[in-house]
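Tokens for chain A. Residues wanted.
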């Protein structure tokens, strides 16, 4: 095994020293070593990829679809994405110049932020939220400004946003993730309109991560891009809505002038996404079978959500019923204290149930746990039984 020359460690990007540990993957890996553990950790749908998507990938391989695609993705997929956005969210984008296919939404996050951030630039982020936003901002030399929403039902209010804009007038971007990971909270059309009104007279670029947009249980998802098309970059993908996490297909859509540098940077990172995966995503976004598969999964998620919310409330956890995604964000019972990391660690090691500490998701997450219900009802029932036993024994 090679040993790194000591002085080479001084050559690293100095922003690495500013990074806060993300923790989610590390915690999951550690918990996975516990024999027989029930995992409610990762946002990983337990469904198989729908048949129509698998067949599209198989056909792509059989047809020797194995050459470089355009850096922004195949024309067929970009047209399917444009259809999906128009049909589902009344967003109109030209497949040629206003849509770029990415290797998952996470790579899209990096490309969008890299196109915007210069060293020292501030990015507004409503928290608790997916910690990658803060990590990428930091590694690019920016400063993440966390807006704690824990005292407003985990909803970014216009007042909180206006206050953040007032105190950080030079902020470059605002990141919105809704439905939210980790809280499952989403926004009504009126709430989105009010946030848009707070942003429209600023020069903020809104990066709207809407990867869970198809998983809204009551009502319909409204994209902020409908109100702010000229200053919004929309991120989405096939991972959550179509159980295609391993296919790694996401996309960014936005106004042509912004998408120019974003698409160029994305292409530098990836050259292009995988042909067969893009063929599968074309079926996901461009066919009735793709939409029907999502609706069937969403119904199952809703049943699981209702069970888990009710069961946790009976055990003394405080939480509201989330209206989107496939997570619940539960406050620890009073008897369990407020150290979410210690509680989650003990629950994994002694109770054999793995969840993610809420503090990993930024300001406002302390004292909470994120539980994913993207798993079977049998596993959820077993998890609840074990949590109940753990609380009694603790």
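Reply:
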């Amino acid at each position: 095994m090679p040993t790194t020359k000591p002085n080479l460690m001084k050559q690293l990007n100095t922003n690495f020293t500013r990074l806060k540990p993300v923790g989610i993957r590390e915690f999951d890996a550690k918990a996975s070593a516990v024999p027989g553990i029930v995992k409610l950790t990762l946002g990983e749908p337990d469904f198989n990829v729908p048949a129509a998507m698998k067949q599209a990938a198989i056909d792509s391989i059989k047809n020797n679809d194995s050459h470089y695609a355009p850096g922004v993705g195949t024309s067929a997929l970009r047209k399917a994405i444009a259809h999906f956005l128009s049909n589902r969210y009344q967003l109109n984008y030209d497949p040629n110049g206003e849509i770029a296919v990415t290797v998952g939404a996470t790579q899209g996050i990096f490309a969008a932020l890299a196109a915007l951030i210069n060293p020292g630039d501030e990015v507004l982020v409503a928290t608790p939220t997916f910690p990658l936003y803060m990590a990428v901002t930091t590694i690019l030399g920016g400063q993440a400004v966390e807006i704690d929403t824990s005292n407003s039902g985990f909803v970014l209010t216009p007042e909180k946003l206006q206050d953040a804009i007032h105190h950080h007038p030079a902020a470059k971007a605002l990141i919105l993730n809704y439905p939210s990971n980790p809280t499952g909270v989403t926004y009504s059309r009126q709430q989105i309109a009010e946030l848009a009104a707070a942003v429209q007279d600023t020069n903020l670029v809104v990066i709207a991560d809407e990867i869970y947009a198809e998983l809204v249980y009551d009502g319909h998802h409204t994209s902020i891009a409908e109100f702010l098309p000229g200053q919004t970059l929309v991120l989405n993908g096939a991972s959550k809505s179509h159980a295609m996490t391993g296919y790694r297909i996401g996309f960014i859509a936005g106004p042509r002038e912004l998408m120019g540098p974003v698409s160029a940077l994305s292409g530098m990172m990836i050259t292009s996404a995988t042909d067969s995966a893009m063929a599968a995503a074309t079926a996901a976004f461009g066919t009735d079978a793709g939409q029907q598969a999502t609706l069937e999964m969403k119904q199952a998620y809703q049943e699981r959500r209702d069970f888990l919310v009710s069961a946790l409330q009976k055990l003394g956890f405080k939480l509201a019923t989330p209206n989107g995604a496939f997570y619940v964000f539960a406050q620890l019972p009073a008897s369990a204290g407020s150290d979410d990391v210690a509680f989650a660690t003990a629950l994994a090691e002694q109770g054999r149930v793995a969840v993610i500490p809420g503090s990993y998701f930024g300001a406002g997450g302390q004292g909470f746990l994120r539980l994913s219900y993207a798993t079977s009802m049998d596993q959820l029932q077993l998890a609840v039984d074990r949590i109940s036993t753990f609380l009694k024994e603790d």
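The longest strand covers residues 122-127. The mean pLDDT is 96.
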